Amino acid sequence: PWTQFHSSVILLPALSPSPKVRGTHPDCSIVLHFQEREAECLERIRSESQTTALPGLEGEGCATEWDGVSCWPALPLGQSRAVACPDILNVFKKSKGLIQRNCTEWGWSPPSPPYHSACQLETLSSNNDTEAKARHFVTMKVLYTCGYSTSMAALLLAIGIFSCFRKLHCTRNSIHIHFFTSFILRGTAVFIKDSVLFSDESINHCTMSTVTCKAAITFFQYSVLANFYWLLVEGLYLQTLLLLTFTCDRSYTWGYILIGWGVPMVTVGVWVLTRLQYDNHGCWDDYSSLYWWVIKAPILLAIFVNFLIFLNVTRMLAQKIRCPDLSKTHKQQYMRLTKSTLLLIPLFGVHYVVFALFPKHVGVDARLYFELVLGSYQGFLVALLYCFLNGEVQAEIRRNWSKWQRSMESNVFNLATQDFTA
Fold first, then answer.
1. CA-to-CA distance for 176 and 258, rounded, in angstroms?
2. Residues 376, 258: one domain?
3. Helices 127-164 and 171-198, axial angle in degrees (round to 10)
4. Given Cys at both, which of 74, 76, 127, 134 links 61, Cβ 3.0 to 4.6 Å?
5. Number of domains in the chain
6. Keyword Transferase, does the record have it (predicted)?
């Protein structure tokens, strides 16, 4: 039956590379393809209904009909017509199937052979596969929800530490706080996007096109861009530290803020205006759209610049460490910086270059695990490296802890002395 076939089709992953298929989500290309074909067929039916007599039918025969998959043109009584499987389904098989229908005195005959048989989709639409995919994505959602929650808690604690201790107030830690904030915004945006798009199973997110939905996607894109550009700022500041010999120069702070928050805001503003003017359909989460490059190009630029900075920082560190005139103290500082730089390779976004060079349909499972599951713990890793494992932070915490203990002991001693005197 057509209903079983249709339900199986919309659950298949959208692997069609056709740029003509619009979608509000990578998994919605097939659904929207059939919706477009249906709209074209219904328009044809309306046009024919305004004509008094259709050529060749002479008042008898079968009118144009949309059966949920294909549009069957009007046909005289007693004749038959055959159509091929929809083009979008050809990606799932190597050969094209033909479906035939006859025009009888009772109307169109059922498709022969049935779509699910002619288009060879039985093995791709089994209930077991569908349930397994559903469990797989539920598991992934639980994992990345735990990851973002852990990261956000760690980042909030790290921001609190940097803000509470006055000796930790400097340009370097101020940049770290902005970087932490971008990760918090990114996690928040993921939760908001999930709640808007997928909270209600009765809503078809493939056709959702509300202001709330578009606002959620816009905020998500801004947080992702801000995250990448504060990553770039961290790389720029690391290079500046080496060039200025560990001098905290506050004159660059506003420049860093403009790069970290301003460039993403301008980019997202241009993207929103572009979508409103030229491509205002769906929920704006169509990564196959050409206008997606308004967001993707600045991200790739930030990654490329950060990669060059990483190579330059590594070269500068190697030169300074090999310098015979360098004091032991400075050499230890450079060695610590070298270790942190090597640990921060993933944070420079080098790994994203690899994924950016591959087509979207290649290595989908690996990409999802890396970007959703492992990427959700990236904020925790940042807080760990920049704050919790930072020797300066640990020393300041120990100093204030000792100071608090001495204060408590002094208060207890004073109370005991007052009681004894009394």
1. 15
2. yes
3. 150
4. 76
5. 2
6. no
